[in-house]
């Protein structure tokens, strides 16, 4: 029996997919519960159109993610924060701080859960942080954490207004 899934069904498929199932499974479980409908020509055509539209959306999102990855890859985010003994920060820099800095610096909003920081940054130094943009597309940004009052590369005093 051919059915079109109306909802995601575990171990069977996602909504909109056309599946061949046992007659009893379809007639006694899937159709009465509203998980599937008998596959008619009209439903099959609708399911195929929906799948094609979904593929187009995914391709567009992937292209945008690749463009964003090229823009962010290798960029540097600089934080100037107060440090104590042994270059340890008072507080820490988290993926939320990184997302805010990316938005401020590049005008791009990135979900904090996509930033793979691992543990928060608690020491001054240079860190390479991956950002998962879509599927297997990843960008790496360099995070430079300087202690407040520490000399920068240009020799100018650090600006405390950048503190996170």
**What's the total count of β strands?**
8
The CATH topology of the largest domain: Ribosomal Protein L9, domain 2
Gap between N and C termini, in Å? 60 Å
CATH homologous superfamily descriptor of the largest domain: Ribosomal protein L9, C-terminal domain
- Estimate the helix proportion, in percent: 25-40%
Runs in which pLDDT lies below 50 for 5 or more consecutive residues are 150-164
Count of the separate structural domains: 2
Cα shape: elongated
CATH class of the largest domain: Alpha Beta
List keywords for this structure.
single chain; alpha+beta; Ribosomal Protein L9, domain 1; three-stranded antiparallel sheet; 3 helices; about 35% helix; disordered C terminus
In a nutshell, what does this entry contain?
This protein has 164 residues and is of the alpha+beta class. It has helices at 23-33, 41-72, 95-106, and strands spanning 2-5, 18-20, 36-38, 76-81, 88-93, 121-123, 125-134, 137-147.
How would you describe this structure to a colleague?
By secondary structure, this protein is α+β, with helices and mostly antiparallel strands. The chain contains 3 helices and 8 strands, in the order ββαβαββαβββ. It has 2 domains: 2-61, Ribosomal protein L9, N-terminal domain (Ribosomal Protein L9, domain 1), CATH 3.40.5.10; 68-162, Ribosomal Protein L9, domain 2 (Roll). The protein has helices at residues 23-33, 41-72, 95-106, and strands at 2-5, 18-20, 36-38, 76-81, 88-93, 121-123, 125-134, 137-147. Strand 7 (125-134) and strand 8 (137-147) form a beta hairpin. It is elongated.
